[in-house]
Amino acid sequence: MSLLAIEGLLGGYGDADHVVKGVSLAVATGELVCVIGPNGAGKSTVLKLVTGLLRPRAGRIRLAGRDITGAAPGTVLRAGCVLVPQERNVFGALTVDENLAMGAFLAPRAARKRRDAVYGRFPLLAQRRRQAARTLSGGQRQILAMGQALMTEPAALLLDEPTAGLSPIAASELFATIRGLAADGVAVLMVEQNALEALSISDRAYVLVDGRNAEEGHAATLAADPGVRRLFLGGRGAERH
């Protein structure tokens, strides 16, 4: 059974600007699902529609059986779904410790316990707990952003281009971290331009083209499909947001 289910999602940045044109997808608890496709396909827009940053024009979004279609971002967050955006996802002037504390604003009494759990998962953050976020490397900031998201104890974690701008080594290490989150029972939905590597760690995948579902299936099957490789897995350009 799917924890996060999206059916016929339609929306974008204005009444006449439907970047997403009827997308459907699903993610189960403990599953890592990636969304790939050419630039401008609406991948990041789907995440914004799910988390309330944009309001859908049509379709339905369910989280653990609860209808969250069109809900405000705070309501979606409290329901257990959190987004880690591609950019501006940490507070640069704050320390690692302070960033994690910001992530616990919904449950301040549980902040210490959750912070200790995050440090246990990411020893690198524990070693830099008093370091300002702006002094971290790109990969370290992405780990901090995920740690901050985990402070809410989400059921579903949405990641928007988590490896953008990272070196191949840093990207590989971050992918291993993301795979570990799914293995521990979090439903992970990841938008990625680094498509071949994303498919290599994912359980299933969806290919979007022009705001619509084009292909879906087991990640390994899609990675081996000559048509998918030729049409959708080249390039790393910036997507329309």
Can you walk through the features of this model?
- This protein is of the alpha/beta class and 241 residues long.
- The protein has a single domain (2-232), classed as P-loop containing nucleotide triphosphate hydrolases (Rossmann fold).
- 37% of the residues lie in helices and 24% in strands.
- The protein contains ten helices and ten strands.
- The chain has helices spanning 43-50, 73-79, 96-103, 111-121, 123-127, 138-150, 168-183, 195-201, 219-224, 226-232, and strands at 2-11, 20-28, 32-36, 58-63, 66-67, 81-84, 156-160, 187-191, 204-209, 212-218.
- Helix 3 packs parallel to helix 6 (138-150).
Please state the average pLDDT score.
Answer: 91
Q: How much of the residues is beta strand, in percent?
A: 15-25%
| CATH homologous group name | P-loop containing nucleotide triphosphate hydrolases
Compute the number of strand runs. Answer: 10
Succession of helices and strands: EEEHEEHEHHHHEHEHEEHH
Sequence of strands across the biggest β-sheet:
6-7-8-3-9-10
CATH architecture designation: 3-Layer(aba) Sandwich
Radius of gyration: 17 Å
Q: For this structure, what is the CATH class?
A: Alpha Beta
Major sheet: size, sense and barrel closure?
6 strands, mixed
Q: What structural category arises from helix and sheet content?
A: alpha/beta
Task: State the low-pLDDT regions, or none.
Answer: 235-241
Give helix % range.
25-40%
Question: How far apart lie the N and C ends?
Answer: 30 Å
